[in-house]
Design brief:
The structure is a homodimer. Chain A is of the alpha+beta class. Chain A contains eleven helices and eleven strands. Chain A folds into two domains: about 90 residues, Malate/L-lactate/L-sulpholactate dehydrogenase, four-helix barrel (Hypothetical Oxidoreductase Yiak, Chain: A, domain 1), CATH 1.10.1530; about 160 residues, Malate/L-lactate/L-sulpholactate dehydrogenase, NADPH binding domain (Ribosomal Protein S8, Chain: A, domain 1, 2-Layer Sandwich). In chain A, strands 2-3-4-10-5-6-7 form a seven-stranded mixed beta sheet, with helices on both faces. A two-stranded antiparallel sheet of chain A has the order 1-11. In chain A, strands 8-9 form a two-stranded antiparallel ribbon. In chain A, strand 3, helix 4 and strand 4 form a beta-alpha-beta unit. The mean pLDDT of chain A is about 95. Chains A and B meet through strand 4, strand 6, helix 8 and helix 9 of A and strand 4, strand 6, helix 8 and helix 9 of B.
């Protein structure tokens, strides 16, 4: 039997559980909103499925539920936020309005976050920048899982970047959100739990050899998409989200899952660019570019799948299977 | 029989041929320097091999040899240059000092170029930014050759990006320079001329089907590295180097080879970021990251091959085969 929840209930449930686990309202509320947004777009891995992990991390001290992020604007186009080992979302919420103002002032601005944490669906942060009429280009890193081509020791995480492009009407014309690896590491974890093999080309074992054994892959490394070029894109993310931000290197970050290792202390870097500062007609050029993609049979714009889910789930709400409902304590909720 | 030239002679030859073809000294000199730099790093495709193309493009009007680029700084962190259908290099030289100053002022700055042209080795521009102690992140687009995954009409060019990271001592710790396609289009052109087949996975024919026929590939599209993720990275480049810059879309740009179609009118976008504005210790973190890559057996830092060539060619000079020497008119040069 499945349980159905509308999005308001998703957010309220997440908020309650986070506060019960010791998070302050200012730490919990932005995370609860992010869980709602993930469920709304059908990104279930960062929706209610992640809530038990957040709760565990509040309990074990990977996240400080009472952290107070600290903002600085050392130069006109530079914004920094110390997330103080709290959740990433409240630190981002603190800095974002300042980033947007700085981008309007200077034409371009950058915000870096340090002593931060997994920021959930990266594309959602980029999309908020696009909703302000700016190009959003966001980078976040993660505990190391990808080795350089030819090597065997992971140096960078699956290190995604996201790009959101304003549509001139308060939204994003499209949102790109992609990691550096062939597949998400969570896919390998899932296969490992089920005792299933993984396809060739996903991962290497600890000796740097191709493997189809999911457990061996988790002790080895994830393969980058497009070989050296995927590693290169992940390296760009590492430079901006970790080294520039003054965050921990991916090589030393504690895992985003489980309870050992203390705060991950990872970082983010978000760029905001005001197209009006550079040339007129940006929105028209983007509309023509997007049309040239989505009018082709068989092709689709980046983010199209999430938008389709959004249209559906906004009205239908989400269904939770019994197992997740149990883990969320919904069997004792009668309201 | 081969002809040997030291790098001074390479630059002098390039300068002479460009001026003979009608370029002003201010247009020709930066291009001649770029040819020297390409030969120095063993990037022969953008060295003297490209000189006959530059000369042809001056003759046919694809490049205006007397163009005077125009600079503007509409906001504190925004620099724009109208290359005025001249070469890209003098326009970049005009804007670069202003970009560097803007990045120091604001922490980050962006320079866009429009009505521009092929800018040669993209990594060299990023490297100059790193030599000023800043992170250089450069984007340039090209006539369309890559279709969106699932489609068959090219929408973006091979659209490379380059990243150069300062080493704290006036140089770059590493330089990444990669296109969005599996291989450079020039590789397919070469095979087509020789009547050779291309490997699977390089390109599609005009119907969007995989092909090993180089001629059919040139009428079709180049495959992006890593599938949709390579296309995504190329799309990021398109947004910044074309749409933001106010340049022509890749879909409408005239070819960088041959003499038809008038000026390509393509664009570039260069970002410069001052690490000191965001956190202390950047150079140490980059050194540790670079070491974690290059100390692994079998792995190497991005740009390592070019650096090795540089060390060698700085002293040895370059060798030209008879065919290229003839095309450069070296058989009539007795000096």
């Amino acid at each position: 039997m499945a349980i159905e929840l509308d999005l308001d209930s998703v957010e309220a449930l997440a908020l309650r559980r986070l506060c019960e686990a010791g998070a302050s309202l200012s730490q919990a509320a932005p995370v609860a909103r992010s869980i709602r947004a993930a469920e709304r777009d059908g990104v279930r891995s960062h929706g209610l499925m992640y809530l038990p992990v957040y709760v565990e991390h509040l309990a074990c001290g990977k996240v400080d539920g009472n952290a107070v992020p600290v903002l600085d604007r050392p130069r006109a186009g530079a914004v920094t936020v110390d997330a103080a080992h709290g959740f990433a979302h409240p630190a981002i919420d603190l800095g974002l309005p300042v980033l947007l103002q700085a981008a309007h002032d200077c034409g371009i601005a950058a915000m870096t976050l340090r002593r931060s944490y997994n920021c959930g669906v990266l594309g959602h942060h980029a999309e908020r920048i696009a909703e302000a009429g700016l190009i959003g280009l966001c980078f976040t890193h993660a505990p190391a899982s990808i080795a350089p081509v030819g090597g065997r020791l992971p140096v960078i995480g699956t290190n995604p970047f996201a790009l959101a492009v304003p549509d001139g009407a308060g939204g994003a014309r499209f949102v790109l959100d992609q990691s550096a690896s062939v597949v998400a590491k969570s896919e390998v974890i899932l296969r490992s739990r089920r005792g299933e093999a993984i396809p060739e080309g996903w991962a290497l074992d600890a000796e740097g050899r191709p493997t189809r054994d999911a457990a061996a892959a988790l002790k080895g490394s994830m393969l980058p998409a497009g070989g050296a070029k995927g590693f290169g894109t992940g390296l760009l993310v590492e430079v901006l989200a970790s080294a520039l931000a003054g965050a921990i290197p991916s090589r030393e970050a504690s895992p985003f899952s489980g309870s050992v290792g203390g705060p991950p202390a990872t970082g983010q870097c978000f760029l905001a660019i005001d197209p009006a500062a550079f040339a007129e007609g940006f929105v028209d050029r983007i509309a023509a570019l997007a049309n040239a993609i989505e009018l082709q049979d068989g092709a689709r714009l980046p983010g199209a799948r999430r938008l389709a889910a959004r249209a559906r789930i906004d009205s239908s709400g989400v269904r939770l299977d019994r197992d997740l409902a149990d883990r969320l304590g919904l069997h004792v909720q009668s309201d």
